[in-house]
Amino acid sequence: xxxxxxxxxxxxxxxxxxxxxxxxxxxxxxxxxxxxxxxxxxxxxxxxxxxxxxxxxxxxxxxxxxxxxxxxxxxxxxxxxxxxxxxxxxxxxxxxxxxxxxxxxxxxxxxxxxxxxxxxxxxxxxxxxxxxxxxxxxxxxxxxxxxxxxxxxxxxxxxxxxxxxxxxxxxxxxxxxxxxxxxxxxxxxxxxxxxxxxxxxxxxxxxxxxxxxxxxxxxxxxxxxxxxxxxxxxxxxxxxxxxxxxxxxxxxxxxxxxxxxxxxxxxxxxxxxxxxxxxxxxxxxxxxxxxxxxxxxxxxxxxxxxxxxxxxxxxxxxxxxx
Length: 322
Ligand code: FAD
What we know:
five-stranded parallel beta sheet
């Protein structure tokens, strides 16, 4: 038996960061189970990159029908790969795509499924994992009693751990039927060519305190110096100041970055729910009583219009001198 991971690729055929994190995690679990890690890849020709993170074998699928994600087809493919490898542990990332298909994979394999897993299994027998619960405000220990187990790993909960391996590759041709493609993706519109929130290590986020869309230039400058993605609070996207794809929070995208810089955002519970998993939170707000300061690692009380340009300037100087 081996561990199977689904190593997700972007539409450009490059691995997403979560694929390497999942491989790192799988390798550590495999070591304690004395087994190997097989990665399933779809339409990605850079599979050698996975050897840096401890993957032993790659099952490579090349099929134009799988260029766009459809939950049923992808779940079917993961299911067939798991059966072929006799995998008892199937690992997915907690991305939108994987979370869509995870229940289908679990049903197909008659497996138990635990989402949002953080950290290594707490116990191997019985098999118990720690998961984020209540919008990341608590943890739950979940026991899976089924023979096959499907887990989705919360983003940035384990990190990247290099662990080189000698990789073998095998082409894999799953059987796909018309029923797998009942839902067809007609068109995919890219929101931006910049760093996306999902892949970013750093996110610079703005709230209503920025007063209007015309003031986003200074956040974009800060983001560009840091190689960060930009994000916003819900009212900002509701007002049309920023695209909905940037809205983070309970009803928006979850953000689990290394650094989250919140500018002019009050820190309402619904916003915090989406960014709780970020490692370091920096808050810039003119109101010392803003709730966001309670969860901040670093707080700056002051006017964003003074602080942000100065911060950007200092970072530019730092980069130039280092
Ligand atoms: P405000 O609350 O108006 O705060 C603006 C902040 O900017 C204030 O703290 C102010 O002190 C500060 N400020 C003002 N001027 C300056 C300045 N010059 N310099 C620095 N700081 C300044 N919200 C989300 O973000 N994401 C969600 O997913 C989400 N989901 C929701 C779901 C439900 C069911 C509900 C009811 C609400 C949801 N909300 C969500 C809305 C949430 O409750 C808040 O209303 C929202 O987060 C507030 O946005 P904000 O902080 O940008 O604006």
